[in-house]
Structures are given as C-alpha cells and as structure tokens.
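User: I'm putting together a teaching handout on how multi-component assemblies are represented. Below are the sequence lines for each component of a complex, exactly as they appear in our records. Could you produce the 3D structure of the whole assembly as structure tokens, so the students can see both representations side by side? Please keep the chain order the same as the input.
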Amino acid sequence: MTQLIWNGLFVGAFYALVALGYSMVYGIIKLLNFAHGDIYMLGAFSGFAMLGLLGGLTTSASMLALFIVLVLAMLVTGLFGLGLERVAYRPLRSSPRLAVLITAVGASFAIEYGMRLVAGPNPKVYEVRLEGTPLHVLGARITVQQIALIVVAVVLMLGLQYLVMRTGTGRAMRAISQDPKASLFMGINVNAVISRTFFIGSALAGAAGVMAGAYYGKVDFLMGFIIGLKAFTAAVIGGIGNIKGAMLGGLVLGLLESFGTNWLGGQWRDVFAFGFLILFLVVRPTGILGERVTERV
Amino acid sequence: MAARVSSLLGSRYLGWIGLAIAVLAPFVNATPYAMSVFTSAALFVMLAVGLNIVVGYCGLLDLGYAAFFAIGAYTSGVLATRYGWPLLATVPVVLIAAVLAGVVIGGPTLRLRSDYLAIVTLGFGEIIRITANNLEVTGGPSGIYGIPSLAIGGLDLGGRVPFYYAVVVVVALATLGASRLGRSRLGRAWRFVREDEDAAEAMGIHTYKVKLAAYIAGAIWGGLAGILFGAQLSAISPQSFTFLWSALILMAVVLGGMGSTPGVVVGAVIISVLPELLRSVADYRYFVFGILLIVVMVFRPQGLWPHRSREPAPQTGPGADAPEDTAELLRKVGR
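Assistant: Of course. Below is the structure of the complete assembly, with chains in the same order as your input.
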C-alpha cells in the first residue's frame, strides 16, 4: 500500500514536471504543443551525450556530474523550445487553430525522426544509473536517489511557482493568458514573454528527461510520445492552464496509474490512463482546479 | 495556358481520369511487387479521403485515425478466422463497431474545445493498439493470421490483379461518396463549422451534431478500409496500427489540400508511393515528412491542390472581392 503510494508519487513527479510546460504554453497561447513530449526526449538524449563527454569523471562523482548535466540539458532544451516557437509556431499565431496543431504534429515528428537520424534507432543506455540500497519506510522501499530526484522536482516546481507569482515576467505571463491583446496595449512585450514561457516549459521537460534517463537507464527516440500524452492527461486532470493544477494532476495521475496497474496488470497501464482522460473530459472537463472557461466570440 | 491548366484541374471529368489511371496501372506493370504497391496506394487513398471528411471538411483534427482502421481490420479478421464468416458478411458488423467507437470517442470530446479532440484521439489510437496487443481474442502481439481473401458469391477475388480491381471499385465509390457528401447540405454545414463555429451556431446549425456526423463518417471510411487491409495482407498485428499510420494519413490530407478531394487523392498517392521510389533515403523520410508538415502549414496552408468551390461566386461589380479583403484584414489583426 505505502509502496504503491510512493511509486505513484515518484512517477507523478515526472508527469508533473512535463505537464507544467504543456499547461503553461496552453494557458498563454492556447496551443497544444505536441512536440513537448519530444523535448523531454531531447533532454534525455542531450543528458546522455554530455555524460558521454564527461566520461570517466562520472563514476567518481556521479551525483554532482549528473546535477551539472541536468542544468546544461535544461539550457539546451530551453533554447530548443525557444527556437521551435520562433520557427514553427510564431508565423502561425493568427492562423486557424487547426494549422498550428498540424504544425505541432509536424514538429513532433521532425524531432523524433531527426533524433533517430542522429542517434540511431536503438535505445541508448545511460552511463550513470541511479540505483541505491533501498531504505524501508513504513513498508515501502525507497532509495536515496529517488528522494534526490523528488527533491529536484519539487525545487524546480517551487522555483516556477515563485517565478510566475512573484516576478515581473510571471505577472506578464498571467496577464497574457487572460487577454493577449490588452496586455500588448499595456506595454507588455508579448512575443518576448511567450518566448520565455517556451524556454521555461521546455527546460522543465528537459530536466524531467535527464532524470528519467538517469533513473530508468535507457533512452530511445520515441520515449517522448507516451509521456507527452500522459502529461497532457495530467494537465487536464489538474485543470489545463493552471500551474498548481498541473502539479496536482501529475501526482493524481501517478497515483491512479500505480493503483490501476496493481489492479489490472502492467500491460493495461496506458489504457487505464487514457481511459481516465476520456472519463475526466466527460465528467469534469475543467479539471480539479480549473475554472470554467468561456470562449469569447 | 495557366487558365487552361486551371480549367483542366477543375474539370468534371477529373474523377474519370483518376479512375482510368487506376484501371490502366496493372497494364503498365503487373509484377507482384507493383500490384502490392498499387493496392496499398488505393487503400491509402480511401483512408485519406475518409480522414479528409473529418479534418478537411469539418476542421477537426483526428490524430488517431488508424484506430478505426484497426477496428475494421480486427473486427472482420476475428469474425473471419475464429467464426469462419466470409469477409463480405463482416461488413455490417464492422460498420456498427466503427460507428459505436466514433460515438464513444466523439460524443464526449466534441462538446469541448476542438483541440481536445486531437489529443483524445491520439490517446484513443494508443488504447486500441494496446488493447489489441493484450487481448487473447485478437491474437496478442502476433496478431491474426490466415484472413481469407475477398469473395463475392462464387467469385473468388483472391488473385493479385482481381483483388486490386475490387479495391479500386470500392475506393472509387468511397471517394465519390465522400466528395458528394462534401457538397451536400451536410457538407456545407461542415465547411461552415470549420470556417466559423460561432457563426454557424448562430445560423441555426446544430454544430455538435454536425461535428459528430463528420467524425462518424470518418470512422466508417476507416473501418471499411480496414477490412480490405486485412484481406490484402491476410495477417494483421498491432504493429500495423501505430501513430505513424495516423500521422501519414494526416500528412496525405494536409499535403494534398484539406477539403479538396482531388488534392487528397493525389496527396495519398504521393505519400504511399514516394517511399517506394526513394528506398535509398528511407531513414530520412519521416524526418522530411515532419518538416514538410511545418513548411506546408507556414507557406501554403491550402495544400498542393486547394479546394475550389463549385458554387459560382459573385464576381461582377467593383466591390466583388471586398469580403475576402475583410477576412484578410481580420486575420492580420489577429481576430
């Protein structure tokens, strides 16, 4: 029981990190960024490449090396997300919604198969593997590394919360999500803020990618597809466009999956999660924390 | 010259020309390999035409179209191999299954913002594939073998060439049907919903019902294509129905021109035959397809062969093109 809860929370923390970027972008420009899961994959691969470059150093001080790699990979994915927005999404900002969605699918495809060209179709194995001796807490097996990853995830989320609620950029982001045109009239540099949003969201996804790579030890070019879907599910459960909602949704989805897997068996895990998404859209499409959004004409 | 090409492209005989090309293709090259490429291309046309109803006519993004394809293939495959039904007899069951799936997925989702549909269909595609992978009745990861070939009455259509012609007949009817549907009263309602959902609602169109109708029509086209797919390969497995398929079908629709039947047919033929011609650069093709989607959307959103309306537009008088300018202006303002 405690083991199930712990597993759920642990996986949920990953979902939450990826869901945050999804939710932020959706909240600001109402775009479902299908490529978001692939940016997570990109983070995992850039982490892999950097660990490869560091080589022998990693074995001695693996935790520190991993931390440096994490920060660098966040920078890489953040910049990539920024570039993606500039090239693929900005020219279409005033086009019909369908056009942008299709572009996002194209971007996702291009990133996946571009990575396949660069890294090859076979899964890669991380040089650092976070496996430690488990501690037993209330009957659950918990490793120090798991706790470290959770702490990193929580710190990142708290940092984001601070950024959005306490800083000028955050205020601008919230203003744009309410009314982009009025924000423009009020002197907010809308394009710059949207770029920053993409940077932050992509960096968080990249962090989750590196952490997943280090924990599970294996990365492949399609790993972002399912997690992208799951992150969207998490964002919907929490209330899309809502930052606390994305965190909550991630944890709720993690727990649900953990219990669902225990109940139905591991092969039904994804079916369970997506079935839940559909159910949630029927019962409460605004999510747990979401407010009712009316579309203005 | 340009005008002549233009009038040729808009010709009423276009469908017959396309059909003639399809009928004559085996006379050019009837090797087993060529026939399998032709048959796959024809099936791909049917899928693209079906997806075009959803994406092109109604403007709903369906990213799990392969799911309906899978439902058709598996329903008919299971009935044919486990219960010994002839393939033709499975058609009504497949229709029911496809419509049911369309209602289950479209029903709740189409009430929400249209972008939710995209992601829910993406999830639905995965649900169907994983379910087929896990269930016993669908043969698990190895799928179903020994699906019988098509036979009508005592006439066996199992040979490569007869089967190809049977597929061409079905696909031609499906294309004609979709195109007629697009020009019907319902089709006009679809286009209206695509252009401006609120205005359509205000004009008395029940947008939810109309969207659901488009989604279900797409499901039917996909399901029927699935039967033919099973009959062609005689074996199906969950690997045949990944997201890659859904994305490729979408690519055909977008590349050809959303909402334009001739465009979509050409797009489907290009997407399905091109990889056969470019085997040497196979590794690059999906990457190129992805880039192509972005490029088409940014520079030519109407596709290679855009839809043109058959209703004569009032083009006399000085202010004839004013409405278009207004629309352009509104788009620039970012309304």
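A couple of points students might notice: Chain B has 14 helices and two strands. The radius of gyration of chain B is 20 Å.
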